[in-house]
User: Which sequence fits this backbone?
């Protein structure tokens, strides 16, 4: 059901930045000249190794150091740390159970999509199989949400002095910044740190630039994926609820390397499984911007379609399939 | 009908037709399950020399009457990779040469062979240098060994973005320099770590001046690895001390060295990567493999009688075209019964370094999985 919401903040999703940085260019389109808050928590203990990022931002970066802050908090607040560990263990276990169920459910959908019989029953069976996958994804997200709710209920992070102090300091830091840039890295660590410090709330309506895991974290759902891993079947998994700033799009960073974009069956399955969101590839040079009229591609971008094709688009993203 | 038979359908072709035929195709020529080898030149006899266990090791070419064109058509299963040479007899002399019409070569400590890439075989992209991948580096370390007598030169692979504040898994690689030269080990590690398929690890590349003795389940070698090599590396580098972060790896006799070291030092090495192990044993009667294998047979017989649980996780691979396939296949259920997690894979390939190279992604990612699913940089 559509929800009424305030006009979305200006948002830019970019392809990976290491080999072909476009961040400076993208920042210029925002028309801001002040400091830019950066989040590199996904790099974990390399968080502070951000020289190249600072360069791309023309010396305007203010690293929020969320990874370091969280480590210090965990060291100072044993209760918070224990609760965090318990939650992470619960999330891992939930993911393991979901993965086992998903393997069978997804295999059925995949086999039916590949079935070439002309039976009249086949299309209904495909739809049902796909609905089962979508239902399982949704159930898993419910479980994940319950785990997060239990953490908040038991640990009451908003009442913990150390965390409150950190949030206040972050609020002050952010108040001097005109935009927020979120780098990639370990997506679960990144999500966790952004959530712990409530960065989306603190960032308010500042424009956001994000790439790789940063872009994934901003979506409505965080989907981890690899079509050709060295171990396992390569079943994309729903990991978490994202921050929902990116609506209607599901970004797939490093798609060229991680997805079999020439396999119509896999492409179709992803597109249909996550519809109505549009699955978009986010490789080097890609640049998607969300303005008042929705999403548009500043450079030719690719989306995965329910028919199994990968189509290129420029300019405004057409209505959902 | 394969192309060479079409060419010959109307009798021996003229020289120009042969020229055109050779220009039109790349050789060896894969057509369905058939592969055509050709040789052009004056000779009394031409034969294909290969190392496929199960086929006669020398297969005769057929001469096209009245020409200097020789050919051989063989059926090979899809995905095969075969190393071979041509054996050319001329004026009573025999010469082993690489196939002049085939640019694909594989190198090993004895030289190089021509390589047939059968239908469906592709050189994996992760064995080729990727300019995007961050490079690790190789450093040298010399240690004195009381157990083996004298100094031993080691090479150590340090992963890209190495940090002293992290602790790393340690993989001891037998015949390490050969893995480096003939199996592109550094490139493979750089690529798999860059792709997050394998965790950043430190690999110690060791080699032996007398491998047929030291690698043949020699207790002195197990003592060297456990009591000299490991402490020396741990004293210098941040190594994760848990067994799950310690691995031994090797091919052929090197695999025997890895397995026997783990068996003699149980609960020290939680990860084993065993490739085409020379795991000869006897159920009854003497071994026919030769004297060098005697200590191996003696060890394997003891091991098979009481395997214990030498490790936690083990990856075993072997080529289907190797004589050792039987010994390796029969080891797998034995290992599984010990309660270890065992991954077994076999390929249509022989006892060679590129076979071992091509299995590294599966083996290393099984033993030391990287954060592939979670990291998007």
Assistant:
């Amino acid at each position: 059901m559509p929800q009424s919401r305030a006009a979305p903040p200006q948002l830019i999703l970019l392809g990976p930045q290491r080999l072909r940085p476009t961040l400076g260019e993208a920042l210029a389109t925002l028309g801001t000249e002040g400091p830019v808050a950066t989040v590199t928590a996904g790099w974990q203990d390399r968080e502070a190794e951000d020289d190249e990022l600072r360069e791309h931002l023309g010396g305007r970066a203010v690293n929020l150091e969320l990874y370091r802050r969280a480590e210090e908090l965990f060291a100072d607040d044993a209760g918070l740390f224990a609760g965090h560990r318990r939650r992470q263990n619960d999330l891992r276990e939930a993911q393991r159970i979901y993965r086992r169920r998903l393997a069978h459910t997804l295999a059925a959908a995949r086999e039916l999509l590949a079935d070439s019989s002309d039976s009249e029953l086949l299309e209904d069976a495909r739809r049902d199989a796909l609905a089962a996958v979508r239902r399982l994804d949704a159930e898993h997200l419910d479980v994940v949400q319950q785990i997060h709710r239990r953490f908040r209920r038991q640990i009451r992070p908003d009442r913990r002095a150390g965390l409150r102090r950190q949030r206040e300091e972050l609020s002050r830091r952010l108040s001097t910044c005109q935009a927020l840039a979120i780098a990639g890295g370990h997506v679960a660590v990144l999500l966790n740190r952004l959530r712990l410090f409530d960065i989306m709330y603190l960032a308010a309506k500042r424009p956001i630039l994000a790439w790789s895991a940063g872009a994934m974290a901003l979506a409505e759902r965080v989907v981890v994926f690899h079509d050709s891993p060295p171990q396992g079947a390569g079943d994309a998994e729903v990991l978490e609820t994202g921050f929902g700033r990116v609506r209607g799009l599901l970004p797939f960073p490093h798609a060229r390397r991680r997805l079999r974009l020439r396999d119509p069956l896999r492409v179709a399955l992803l597109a249909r499984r996550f519809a109505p969101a549009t699955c978009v590839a986010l490789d080097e040079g890609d640049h998607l911007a969300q303005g008042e009229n929705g999403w548009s591609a500043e450079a030719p971008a690719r989306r995965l379609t329910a028919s199994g094709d990968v189509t290129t688009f420029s300019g405004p993203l057409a209505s959902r399939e | 009908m394969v192309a060479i038979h079409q060419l010959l359908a109307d009798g021996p072709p003229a020289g120009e037709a042969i020229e055109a035929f050779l220009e039109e195709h790349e050789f060896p020529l894969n057509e369905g399950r058939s592969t055509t080898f050709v040789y052009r030149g004056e000779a009394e006899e031409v034969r294909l020399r290969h190392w496929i266990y199960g086929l006669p090791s020398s297969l005769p070419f057929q001469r096209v009457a009245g020409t200097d064109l020789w050919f051989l058509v063989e059926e090979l299963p899809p995905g095969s990779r075969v190393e071979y040479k041509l054996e050319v007899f001329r004026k009573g002399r025999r010469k082993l040469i690489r196939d002049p019409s085939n640019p694909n070569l594989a190198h090993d400590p004895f030289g190089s062979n021509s390589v047939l890439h059968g239908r469906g075989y592709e050189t994996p992209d992760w064995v080729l240098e990727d300019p995007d991948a961050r490079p690790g580096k190789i450093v040298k370390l010399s240690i004195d060994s009381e157990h083996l007598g004298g100094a031993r030169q080691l090479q150590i692979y340090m992963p890209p973005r190495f940090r002293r504040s992290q602790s790393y898994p340690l993989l001891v690689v037998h015949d390490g320099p050969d893995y480096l030269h003939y199996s592109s080990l550094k490139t493979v590690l750089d690529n798999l770590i860059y792709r997050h398929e394998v965790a950043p690890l430190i690999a110690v590349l060791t080699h032996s001046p007398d491998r047929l003795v030291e690698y043949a389940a020699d207790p002195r070698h197990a003592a060297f690895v456990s009591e000299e090599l490991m402490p020396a590396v741990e004293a210098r580098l941040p190594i994760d001390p848990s067994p799950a972060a310690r691995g031994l790896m090797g091919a052929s006799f090197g695999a025997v060295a890895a397995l026997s070291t783990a068996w003699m030092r149980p609960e020290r090495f939680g990860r084993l990567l065993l490739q085409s192990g020379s795991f000869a044993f006897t159920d009854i009667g003497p071994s026919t493999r030769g004297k060098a294998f005697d200590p191996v047979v003696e060890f394997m017989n003891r091991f098979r009688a009481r395997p214990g649980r030498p490790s936690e996780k083990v990856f075993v691979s072997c080529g289907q075209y190797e004589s050792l396939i039987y010994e390796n296949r029969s080891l797998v259920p034995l290992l599984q019964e010990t309660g270890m997690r065992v991954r077994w894979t076999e390929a249509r390939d022989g006892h060679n370094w590129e076979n071992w190279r091509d299995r590294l992604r599966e083996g290393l990612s099984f033993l030391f999985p990287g954060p592939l699913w979670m990291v998007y940089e």
Observations:
- The mean pLDDT of chain B is 96.
- The CA atoms of residues 137 and 158 of chain B lie 5 Å apart.
- The interface with chain A takes residues 132, 161, 163, 165-166, 192, 195, 197, 361-362, 365-366, 369, 371-377 of chain B (CB under 8 Å).
